[in-house]
């Protein structure tokens, strides 16, 4: 999901295309792996610390991260489209996503943040019939409907 936010930053900086909305779902946006949640989710095998470190190596391909590859590095997040971000309390990306949503709000970017208690990375795909999964999907669909009006 760094790609989605990175694309929005690039579009903003280049002046086109004009994006109206972004919905990064539990986005991977901080390559530093220094926030507390990156040390809490270490051995679950879905998306944990070792997997995230490896994914950043693959994604960056040996290059230094910039704000487009790792949006948490962006100094200025103003002018981005409104956002809907959701992440679980048991997701490695919890802290970076909360911090980024706060930065968006502080920059005047409308941002709806949902932190789902008990949800882990992609839990709604592993347990699609669970009540929590149903709430996650309902929230996303509702946000899309509102954004597309």
Top keywords for this entry?
149 residues, alpha/beta, 3-stranded parallel sheet, 6 helices, Rossmann fold
What's the arrangement of secondary structure elements?
Blueprint: H1 2-14, E1 21-22, H2 36-40, H3 49-60, E2 82-90, H4 94-106, E3 111-120, H5 123-126, H6 131-147
Parallel strand pairs: 1-2, 2-3
Verbal overview:
It contains six helices and three strands. With 149 residues, the protein is of the alpha/beta class. It has one domain: Rossmann fold, CATH 3.40.50.1820. A three-stranded parallel β-sheet has the order 1-2-3, with helices on both faces.
Mean model confidence by pLDDT = 95
**Radius of gyration based on Cα positions:** 15 Å
Oligomer: single chain
CATH 2nd-level architecture: 3-Layer(aba) Sandwich
Helix-strand makeup class: alpha/beta
Task: Let me know the number of strands.
Answer: 3
List unreliable stretches of 5+ residues.
none
Number of helices in the DSSP assignment: 6
Question: What count of domains describes the coordinates?
Answer: 1
Q: What is the molecular shape?
A: globular
CATH superfamily: Alpha/Beta hydrolase fold, catalytic domain
Q: Tell me roughly what share of residues is in helical segments.
A: 40-55%
The largest sheet has its strands arranged as: 1-2-3
Q: What portion of the residues fall into strands of 2 or more residues?
A: 5-15%
Largest sheet: 3 strands, parallel
Indicate the CATH class: Alpha Beta
Query: What is the N-to-C order of secondary-structure elements (H for helix, E for strand)?
Result: HEHHEHEHH
The separation of the N and C termini measures 24 Å
CATH fold naming: Rossmann fold
């Amino acid at each position: 999901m760094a790609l989605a936010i990175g694309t929005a930053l690039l579009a903003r900086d280049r002046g086109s295309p004009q994006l109206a909305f972004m919905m990064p779902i539990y986005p991977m946006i901080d390559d530093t792996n220094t926030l507390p949640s990156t040390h809490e989710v270490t051995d679950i095998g879905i998306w944990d610390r070792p997997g995230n470190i490896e994914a950043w190596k693959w994604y960056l391909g040996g290059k230094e991260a910039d704000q487009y590859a790792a949006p948490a590095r962006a100094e200025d997040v103003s002018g981005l489209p409104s956002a809907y971000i959701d992440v679980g309390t048991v997701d490695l990306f919890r802290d970076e996503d909360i911090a980024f949503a706060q930065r968006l709000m502080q920059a005047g970017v409308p941002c709806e943040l949902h932190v789902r208690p008990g949800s882990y990375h992609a839990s709604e795909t592993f347990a699609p019939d669970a009540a929590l999964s149903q709430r996650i999907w309902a929230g996303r669909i509702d946000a899309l409907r509102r954004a597309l009006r």
